[in-house]
Design brief:
By secondary structure, this protein is mainly alpha-helical. It has 13 helices and no strands. The chain is globular and about 55 Å long. The relative contact order is 0.13. The model is unreliable at about 1-5 and about 15-25 (pLDDT under 50). It catalyses: 3'-dephospho-CoA(in) + ADP(out) = 3'-dephospho-CoA(out) + ADP(in); dADP(in) + ADP(out) = dADP(out) + ADP(in); adenosine 3',5'-bisphosphate(in) + ADP(out) = adenosine 3',5'-bisphosphate(out) + ADP(in); ADP(in) + ATP(out) = ADP(out) + ATP(in). It is found in: Mitochondrion inner membrane.
Length: about 325
């Protein structure tokens, strides 16, 4: 009986083939899925490495900027240098990287998710607008960057909160990253881990959007002018620096507000809302000296970090593809 059934099935398949039916090709489908998975993994690894290299390079400047952002002391390049030098004399050279372990815990997943999400959003928007495999038009280009930054910020925000706390407190206060999580949760409540989340998202949308938009636009313009599809590494660094300068300048006041809200528990303030925090900063310190405190340092630190980040991401991706490592 089984043989008869099997014979019928074979006859049906042969009849279908005779009528021109195309049978599914599972091997091709699996190959496509494997390629997609490799592409995602490539983006994640390249993004993680880019974020780690960029943030480690500027960690002392970043820590100094945060200390000024959350205090009412006036910022100047001279005062920033004095703070760095005093920290070095008091706690040693590696103390300038205090909080960098917490930064890495946040930056590695943040950069991996942001760069990977950007590649995925570019593909989705390119398909939707009919530009698949080509440079996106301006509005989708801006949207892809904003969505990528928002996705990464939502997932990794508590790690940013922990990093800010470690940067502004004495090393005796918290022993390690887990200690920060445990004590904040126990002493201030779990909601505190998302304090400052609103200004973060409000700042990430223009920052990530403008950064990716500027970088992609400069690469597109460069390719059109020179006929070279791949810029030299130093050109990628310059394009990334320009992107960082524009993106960070546009979102900087919200970055100050975010830091004040994140560190309120250890600075004695009770910042609760974005507008309330802005009003208090402006009332006590003024608009420029308050909301733009440390911006000049950011104009040094930001372009370097973003330039290194974009350049490292692109070159790592090219290297991984060239040697078929991923």
């Amino acid at each position: 009986m089984d043989q008869v059934r099997m014979g019928n099935v074979v006859q049906e398949r042969q009849g279908a083939l005779a009528q021109g039916e195309v049978l599914p090709r599972p091997a091709a489908s699996q190959s496509e899925g494997f390629k997609q998975g490799r592409s995602v993994l490539n983006s994640l690894v390249s993004g993680a490495f880019a974020g780690a290299v960029a943030k480690t390079a500027v960690a002392p400047l970043d820590r100094t900027k945060i200390i000024f952002q959350v205090s009412s002391n006036r910022f100047s390049a001279k005062e920033a240098y004095r703070l760095i030098y005093r920290t070095y004399l008091k706690d040693g050279f590696f103390s300038l990287w205090r909080g960098n372990s917490a930064t890495m815990v946040r930056v590695i997943p943040y950069a991996a998710i942001q760069f990977c999400a950007h590649e995925q959003y570019k593909g989705i928007l390119g398909k939707y607008y009919g530009f698949q495999g080509k440079a996106l038009p301006p509005v989708p280009r801006l949207l892809a960057g904003s969505l990528a930054g928002t996705t990464a910020a939502i997932i990794t925000y508590p790690l940013d909160m922990v990093r800010a706390r470690m940067a502004v407190t004495p090393k005796e206060m918290y022993s390690n990253i887990m200690d920060v999580f445990v004590r904040i949760s126990r002493e201030e409540g779990l909601k505190t881990l998302y304090r400052g989340f609103t200004p973060t998202i409000l700042g990430v949308v223009p920052y990530a959007g403008l950064s990716f938009f500027t970088y992609e636009t400069l690469k597109k313009t460069h390719a059109e002018k020179t006929g070279r599809a791949h810029p030299f590494p130093y050109e990628r660094l310059v394009f990334g620096a320009c992107a960082g300068l524009i993106g960070q300048s546009a979102s900087y006041p919200l970055d100050v507000v975010r830091r004040r809200m994140q560190t309120a528990g250890v600075t004695g303030h009770t910042y609760s809302t974005v507008l309330g925090t802005m009003r208090e900063i402006v009332a006590e310190e003024g608009i420029v000296r308050g909301l733009y405190k440390g911006l000049s340092m950011n104009w040094v630190k930001g372009p370097i970090a973003v330039g290194i980040s974009f350049m490292t991401f692109d070159l790592t991706q090219i290297l991984l593809r060239k040697f078929q490592l991923l």
